[in-house]
Design a protein that fits this description.
With 403 residues, this protein is α+β, with helices and mostly antiparallel strands. The protein has 16 helices and nine strands.
Length: 403
């Protein structure tokens, strides 16, 4: 990765090495200058290790409805259906919407969507109460993630899904799930992922067989199963696992990222007074610091994207975080503006594959940020480091002070 080349009279220019490396330390530290350069110079760029990355908003949006791009893993992937008997990860991928194409995708999404909203609509103010409980326990110098947002998100998802296991045990499982959404070439890590997913499945299966609490996600999925044909217990467990993991990892990371965005934007007083909508501030904050940076697709046939010929079975990654800062769509794209049109923001995807858990995710983050504002919690520093992961932008830690 090359640095900024500054001149007196020009806007600073940025260059990257090609093929592009998603794991480069400079990119992990701050991906946005690289995204800007790629949108301008290589909107469909070849990646080190294989595959391509789309960075322009228009190309990403078109990709969501392009029938030549699918969700199911390619025949070369360790997650391909042919490996379902060999790897837990491959078997799990064969059951959940992010890795399914029509017609299999439709029934699984219906089960998740109907069950999810039945539970969400009956939650009341549970998230606000839980958020205040967790934030009230913070002391100056604590790490917001490990001390508050992590237990908040795990406890919330245990209640949502109908799982009585210890939050510490469940947290140990959730991070493994997201390895499925990025290239994973290390056999040892892949083995660890399969072990963790098997244990995750076992906990959820036990909860399902024991009879989950009425109104929980597992209970709602069981009811859907009774009214449908062909839904197995394993499919229920795996789709609950999807919702659970998504409601933990991106949420605990999102709280810390939003803290930094709000600090840099200087909006604490507006949030405290209520002149700025907390939900709109959360959505705009997620546009600027998108936790799920990339979503994968697979070329079902040879296709041209962004002027580049892509062969069949090649992975294509849609850079949602780059699209969210595309100046062709958003005025002053690097500036916080909660009044902008949020319908164009693609933090949660687009179309029939839009994240089902969006409403819960926004509700979790809004509850946490509301409690943070009310109790005067602020970042102790104006910078933070991020986990070295492909596809997700998750802070390592966020130390706090009390106003």
């Amino acid at each position: 990765m090359l640095g900024w080349l500054k001149t007196r009279r020009e806007v600073a220019k940025f260059c990257v090495d090609l093929p592009f490396d998603l794991s480069a330390p400079a990119f992990i530290a701050d991906p946005y200058p690289s995204y800007a350069w790629l949108r301008e110079n290589a909107p469909a760029v070849e990646l080190q290790g294989g595959g391509y990355l789309l960075t322009r908003y228009a190309d990403i949006r078109a990709a969501f409805t392009n029938s030549a791009l699918g969700n199911a893993p390619s025949r070369f992937s360790t997650l391909a259906p042919r490996n379902a008997q060999k790897y837990v990860a491959a078997d799990l991928a064969s059951h959940i919407p992010p890795f399914l194409d029509a017609p299999e995708h439709k029934q699984m999404r219906q089960m998740v969507s109907r069950s999810f909203f039945n539970v969400f609509n009956g939650m009341g103010n549970e998230l606000d109460v839980l958020a205040r409980e967790q934030i009230a326990q913070l002391n100056a110098g604590d790490d917001l993630i490990s001390a508050a947002s992590q237990p908040f998100s795990v406890i919330a998802m245990c209640r949502f899904c109908g799982v009585a296991s210890a939050p510490e045990q469940m947290k140990a499982f959730t991070q493994a799930f997201f390895h499925l959404f990025a290239p994973l070439c290390d056999p040892e890590v892949f083995a660890q992922v399969n072990t963790a997913l098997a244990a995750f499945r076992a906990v959820l299966a036990e909860a399902l067989q024991a009879g989950p609490p009425e109104g929980s996600l597992l209970a709602q999925m069981r009811a859907f199963q009774a009214q449908s044909e062909g839904i197995t217990d394993v499919q229920i467990v795996d789709n609950c696992l999807l919702v659970f993991a998504d409601g933990v990892e991106n949420i605990e990371a999102g709280v810390a990222s939003l803290m930094l965005v709000f600090e840099q934007a200087g909006i604490w007083d507006d949030l405290q007074s209520g002149t700025l909508s907390m939900e709109l501030a959360v959505r705009e904050g997620l546009r600027l610091q998108t936790p799920a940076q990339l979503v994968p697709r697979v070329a079902r046939e040879g296709i041209e994207l962004g002027g580049v010929q892509i062969k069949k079975d090649m992975p294509v990654f849609l850079a949602l975080a780059s699209g969210n800062r595309d100046g062709a769509v958003f005025d002053a794209p690097d500036t916080f503006d909660a009044a902008r049109n949020m319908s164009d923001v693609m933090t949660f995807g687009q179309g029939r594959h839009r994240c089902i858990g969006e409403t819960l995710g926004i509700a979790q983050l809004t509850a946490m940020m509301r409690a943070i504002v009310e109790l005067g919690i602020r970042p102790a520093a104006k910078a933070m480091t991020y986990q070295s992961r492909i596809g997700h932008r998750w802070p390592d830690e966020m130390f706090v002070k009390i106003k």
